[in-house]
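CO-FOLDING WORKSHEET

Operator: S.A.
Ligand of interest: pyridoxal-5'-phosphate
Run index: 404
Mode: holo prediction, single chain
Checklist:
[x] sequence pasted
[x] SMILES validated
[ ] output reviewed
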Amino acid sequence: MTLPPNVHDAEPIPAAARDAIDALMQSGDLFRYTAPQDAPVALLESEFAELLGTKYALAVSSCSAALFLSLKALDLPRDARVLIPGFTFAAVPSSVVHADCIPVLCEVGQNYRIDMDDFAAKLENVQAVIISHMRGHTSDMDAIMALCDARDIPVIEDAAHSLGTTWHGRNIGTIGKVGCFSFQSYKMINAGEGGILVTDDADLVARAVIMSGAYEHNWKKHKSPHGDNSPDLEQAFARWQNQLPLYNLRMSNLSAAVIRPQIPELARRVRDGLANHDYVADRLNTSPHIHVPAPLAPERRAPDSIQFNLVDLSDEDTLAFAAAAEARGVKVQVFGLSEDNARAFWNWQFLPEQIELPQTRAMLMKACDVRLPVRLTRKELDVIADILLASVGEVTAPAMAFGT
Ligand SMILES: *Cc1c(COP(=O)(O)O)cnc(C)c1O
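OUTPUT RECEIVED:
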């Protein structure tokens, strides 16, 4: 029998990164603003903007930093209310608190996407929204943009886990006013840590660049991907010179050197991740006790993990299922049942306002999460699917064990 695969190791970093890192080691040129031009971070920004088809990109220390800077760049007043989904990673409400704003939580459905009725109801009293495409599940961006545009409410996309996902063929992260991505190790491109924001808004990016730590005239080293800066951008930098605090959330050249050679790998990773996910989803959906929610019609996903809901299982059976899978070598996270889980909203006790979300809570008690790194083979995927199906079989039909 094939052993359960290691799902924690990432793919090796492409060899080209070593040459770039060696060169940096030799020169000691690790700070993005030392070189007069073409520092690895600046090149990454051009390449990433080109990849996504946006005018501007700003590389920073994490996606959380990108979310924080996006909120600051929107110039929201202190205590502005920011609508976020009730199912996301704790870093998202944290970035809102960090920006001196108040997170307002919105219900999420059984398919992990924003509940549009609750979203519409709560939109009246908010000044901005962050759409967190949690685990790469895209919420209904058509409905969200229609509602927000009608009220002139800016939309920040938390696309941390959505690099390579498209909506009507358009890149996720480019639909709202600003999109934020992560290069933390569990995301599609791995630099250990890192983040980037993309936008077409010159004023917003100028504010974010300065606040990220482009002190004095370092903003001159930020170019749009097509070379010379537009007058819009130059004017925006001039407007904000010396007007904004510097939070120093810059990316190091070392991180950029690790990220850049992974960009050409992205298309393959997305293709393999989706094929792997859909293969396991089809197998899991053969069980009446497992439901893998379908994507929305305009969405083409880029998954590196799978989420599914257990059907007609008590909390006790759900825990027994997770234990049975773990005993066989597959780790299942049940978002709402593991202690102190950072994706369960009731553990965000640092929020200035607590709120109960019954629908999201019910989903979190049934929703399971299993890592499926894109490098897994069909055989390894079968081992994982076999184990999950056997484990659910064990807890739902215990009588069978004593058989006739
Ligand atoms: C990983 C993740 C974040 C945080 O990204 P960092 O780069 O670690 O700050 C935020 N939101 C979502 C949905 C994520 O998956």
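REVIEW:
The longest strand covers residues 305-310.
The domain at 265-396 is CATH 3.90.1150.10 (Aspartate Aminotransferase, domain 1).
[x] output reviewed
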